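Entry 12.
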Amino acid sequence: QVQLVESGGGLVQAGGSLRLSCVASGSTSFTFNTIGWYRQPPGKQRELVAGISVSGSTKYANSVKGRFTISRDNANNTLCLQMNSLKPEDTAVYYCQAVVTSRISGNQYRYWGQGTQVTVSS
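Predicted 3D structure (tokens):
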């Protein structure tokens, strides 16, 4: 089992910044592959915000390019999302997601954190 715990959400005014963190813990029987951040605005479907591979390749939603930066610390199993120039439309619950591979079976699994609320006021 893998546990993902997010932190760093909160209330911020438009134009402000927040930094989200996600710490992964649990069994050492897994290796972490691509990890990323998703968000679910009120009344809408969950969507990809940013992802990062083991090699450090990144992918961003068009709506956050140039404003958000994703990073990972493999040694400490930590994922971060620096969010700058926040807009009211960034308001959502933000989820950390990890794709892991079992060292034993080679199977891949997907885990989610519990989510952290980000609210941007106008």
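Annotation: The chain has a mean pLDDT of 95. Residues 34 and 55 are 9 Å apart (CA to CA).
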